[in-house]
Amino acid sequence: MDLASIRRAYKRYAGMYDVVFGAPMNPGRKLAVATANKKPKQRVLEVGVGTGLALPLYRKDITVVGIDVSTEMLDRAREKVEEKGLKNVEALLEMDAENLTFPDQSFDTVIAMYVASVVPHPERLMAEMKRVCKPDGDIIIVNHFTSDGGPLRAVEFLINPLSKTLGWRPEFDLKPLLGTAGVEVKSIRPAHPMGMFKVIHCRNTPARVPADATASAGYAAPGGELQPAEVRRSSSAR
Questions:
Q1: Using one digit for the tens of pLDDT, what is the confidence trace for 147-156?
Q2: CA-CA distance, 72 to 145, in Å (whole number)?
């Protein structure tokens, strides 16, 4: 997978995305946004906002920022915002999910729906989602993960070589993704009767460093917790 392949794939999908991928993936969207909607007056980042199918689902006192790498998909999302009068949508931006330009701790909740198996480097996606999410904030992931067996597993194996053409990976393992993320998994729920998609709700655990490391860095970090002011990494420095 690479960005050029992803952009080509979603340029093809843009005009038909709502029809082909709308209804089958709506259960995951609804469950993910319902999880976010439990907390009022948040600022939410939706990574891979696509054509904006989930945008009308957010409660009106939640401010939403959406990003995507596809110009064509974002154009569709902007049309929805205008048509439906979604005043709580702060911005829709063209941006690489693996290189977010937001400052650290910019959002209360970060959501990525059907994105993790699309990006070239899922571990970078998770690292960026964690970085821009506030400590103890929510990170919500909706995605297809490799099946344990049966006919669906056989299909995943057969079409996996077509990943670049499809624009997503049919074979995608959950454990490595979460194992490197540094988050606390609160729940894993099926979002489809067949178990094809899952909704992963995580808490963004505060980063920690050894006491000797904080001392050598020349600042105090009570309890070993990294302090936001000291660890902020600006987008211009990357």
A1: 554 445 444 4
A2: 26
